[in-house]
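Hi R.,

Here's the chain you asked about this morning:
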Amino acid sequence: MTQHLPTGSGSDIATAPGGAQASSCQAENDTIAAIGTGAGLGGIGIVKISGKRAAGIAQRLFRPARPTDQPQVSAYIPKPRHLSHGFIANPDDGQPLDEVLLAFMPGPHSYTREDVVEIQSHGGTVVLHKILDLVLLSGARLAEAGEFTRRAFLNGRIDLTQAEAVADLINARSESAMRQAARQLGGGLKLQIQILIEQITDMLADIEADLEFGEEGVSGIAAERITGASLSQRLIVPMRQLAESYKLGRAVREGLRLAIVGRTNVGKSSLLNRLIERDKAIVTPFPGTTRDPVEASVTIGNMAVDFIDTAGIRDSHDPVECIGIQKSQEALNEADLVIFVIDAQNPMTADDERIFKDIQGKRFIFAANKIDLFGVGQTPALPIAYAQCDPIFISAKSGAGLDALKSRIAKLCRKTAGGENEAVLCDPRHKEALGSALDAACKAAEALDDDGPLDMVSMDLKHALGQLQTIIGERIAAEVLDAIFKKFCIGK
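And here is the predicted structure, written out as tokens:
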């Protein structure tokens, strides 16, 4: 894919897939190496090497278990796309370090599109670092964070959304997040952005033809093919649909935020401890015990859910408690889901009414707590407004009703997550760029409806095009590229 670059200093822009180097990186023709498996002990560990010297380093360090296959050990050449059994040995004294399997994947048919060697050793920390030391002494340098994936991007194997999906896949907190990252890694978002880019490119071609040849009698091309309505249908509508997917994508990627709210002493902290099955929040009989929001994460229905136990919301003159109440309100405003807890014995106070108004418009579950204080078979009487919210009667103390509550939470999570679309936005960078592109497209449509000059329409569409190109990495500032890959671990 050809890189499209804006005008300006070459030091500010990271160049195209195809092998050019970004100014802020170390030399892209270096051979790099790193441990590719997580820290700690394990059965298997992997040292990865990528670059022109990868095969030579393998030849220097690897000793096949069956040297009769290649009588001259010094002339050993790794066999492409095969696992070779042997030993890593110190070339200075010939002492074997570990029994390994070695895989050689010559470029361009490799992860980075360079020659890649993977040494699969035992997973001990010492042995992995000793092997890495030998690799570095043999002509490689230590890879930077995310440099293997960065090379895959710069060499045109993947676009930037796919590169970012690698990090999302590694960091996935739930099965739903894993599947979403896998779809993006497979090119789902890339395809949607490329379709939009093609639409803008076609429109710009018609406009440029009008601007260049209009005086020679070839006018009217843009007027016939591009109107505000057609631009809206071809560009604005799909862009808005993609932009609207961000709320879902972010929730799946980062986890749903579920705030437990209510006035003081209704049992919010006890409920949190019950839901996460451990004593995370402090529980006392005194109102106002919780001052700062307490968070805990669990997985419900293949979704990561962050429970937030908030301070009791009430009128208070205690300056410390007031800060906690303010944080509770912020948590409520930011929550994807809410559990509104009341005391079933005293279900309607002014504080309850105020909270009930605040949660309107949110997805919420109404939980009437402390039913253990009622007699067997007794049902608390609730105000009509509460009774219409399909309340669940629970006891955070005894656990009564908790299964029904968990089932309701799982159902609400599934409803909030919605279906599994092929392409959703989940990264703030993508959201910002698409929002800017959408604004520019809307300006272009307005100009067309008002019979504005085509050169102004062209400028707006070019801005939209540039913003979409930044999403997939066809135009990207070097410092932005650095920031993206610094989030990766070394070895990926």
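One quick note: Residues 1-16, 18-23 have pLDDT under 50 and may be disordered.

Cheers,
M.
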